[in-house]
Amino acid sequence: MPFGVHNHQRGASCLNYRLVFRQLGILVLLVGGCLSTSLIWAFLDRHQEGAEKIITAISVSMSVCLLISLLFFLFSRGSTGQLYRKEAIAVVGFGWLLCGLLGALPYIFSGVLTTQYGPWWDIGSSAFFESTSGFTTTGASILTSPQDLPRAILFWRSLTHWLGGMGIVVLFVAVLGGTGAGAKFLFSSEVPGPLAESLRPRIRSTALLLWKIYLAISIAEVICLKLQGVNIFESLCHTFGTMATGGFSTLNGSIGQYNRLGIEITIIIFMLLAGTNFNLHAALLQRRWQPVLKNKEFRIYLLLLFLATSALTLDLAINRAPHYSPGRALRSAGFQAVSIMTTTGYCTDNFDQWPSFSRWLLVMLMFIGGSAGSTGGGIKVIRIMLFLRVAVLEVERAFRPRIVRTLKVEGRALDEDMRRSISSYVGIVLMIFFVGTVLLMVLHNEAHVESHRYLDLETSLSAVAATLNNIGPGLNMVGATQNYAFFTAPAKLLLALLMVIGRLEVMVILCLFVPSFYRQD
Questions:
Q1: Can you tell me the distance from the alpha carbon of 440 to that of 434, in angstroms, rounded to the nearest whole number?
Q2: CA separation (Å) from 78 to 177, 183, 208?
Q3: pLDDT score recorded for residue 12
C-alpha cells in the first residue's frame, strides 16, 4: 500500500504522514501568530534597558515558527484524504509537544534564563519545562523571581496558559475548520472529559461556541480586576491564568501578594466558572436552566468544594490557632480549596505549612480535578463519580452475582465499554503516578549524589501529582513558595512529559509510544 494511504475496502489504514505534516504546519503558523502579540508589550517597553534584545528574541522566535511551518508544508506536498482517528491523535500529540518546544524559544533567545541556569542543556530543559507548563495550564515554574522579567516575556508566559486552556487544537478547528470528519477526532482528542464528543453534533460550531464563551468570561474577569485597581497588564495575565486554570502569576507572591479580599473573591468566582463544564455555560447563554440545575456532576463539584473548604477551615482554626482566626482560616481555606481542585494553583497562603491533614487533603483534590468539558485538570469529577459507582456495583456483585443494574449518567445508560474505559483510565493514571514518582527520584537523585540534594518521597509524590494533574505547586521542596528550578535536566523533561500526558488525558500521548500506531492495521 502507498505511503500514508487509507484502504477503505479492507478497513485498514496506516498513518497519513503528509496530511499530519500539513496540519502541524498550520498549527505552528498559528503559534507564531499568537507569539506576535507579545511584541505589543515589547514595543511599549522599548525605552527600557534590554528592550531591543527582547524585541529581537520574539522576532527570531516568530521567524523560526515560520520556517518550521514552511518545512512542514514542503513535506506535506501532495497530501490527500482526510483526517481519521490516527491522524487526529498524531496531530494533537505531536502538536502539543511542538507547542512546548516552540513556546520555549522566547525564553532561550531573550537570555532571561542564562544568568540563573548554567549549561545549555539546563537552559533548554528549563525553557521547555516553563513553556510546556504554560500550554498544559500546569503553572509549575522554574523562575525564581518572575516579576523581574520583561513584560513581553511574562505576557507570552501567561498567554500560553490561555491558549492551552480551551485548547490550541480546538482553536485551530474553530478558526480554520476544513478538516472534515477529522474535526470530530481532533476535538475529542483534546477537550477533557469522557463526554466531550456529545457537546454538539457540529464540531466546528461547537469549538467556535466554546471559544466565544471562553473569551466573553475572560473579558468579564479583566474588567472586574481592573475595577479593583489592578493594572491592565496584570489583569490580563491573571485572567489568562484563572480562565485556563493555569496559575502563572506576574508576582513573586502569586495572588497573595495583593492581600486584598475583593481580588481573591473575584478570582475564586472565575476559577469556579473555569472549572465548570462549558456545556453548562452554553446552556445558560440559551437561558436553559434545567440542564444546569439537574447536572449531577456540577452538584457534586460544588458539594466537594464546600466539604473541602469546611474541613480545611476547621483544621486550620483548631490546629493553627491563634495564628489562624476563624475568619482567616475560612479565607485561606476557601481560596486554596477552589484553586487546587480546579487545578489553577494560585496561592494566597503557604499551605505547605498547614497541618498534615490539610496538606494531603489538597493532594487528594489535585487528583479529583474539575468538571469534564472544563479547562480544569485532574481525573475529573464525573470519572471519580462513575468509578466509585462501578466499584460499589462490583462489590455488590461479589455476593449477588445475578444482579442486573443499569448505571446512568445524565439520563443515559452507561454501557460496558464506558465502564471499562473509566476503570482503565483511573488505573493507568495511578500507574503513571507511581512509576513517575520512582523515575523522578532516580533521574534527580542519581545526579546529586555528591551535593546531597536528594528528593524526599513527599516532594516526589507531590511533584508528580502536581504535574500529572496540571496543578503546579506541590508539597515540601515544590511547595507554594518554592519552584522547580533545582531539578536536573532529565527530571524536568520527565515532569514536562507528565504535564502533556495529564493535559491530553493519557491515551493520546501513550499512543505515540506504541509501534503499531505507525503501521498498517
A1: 10
A2: 20, 21, 29
A3: 45
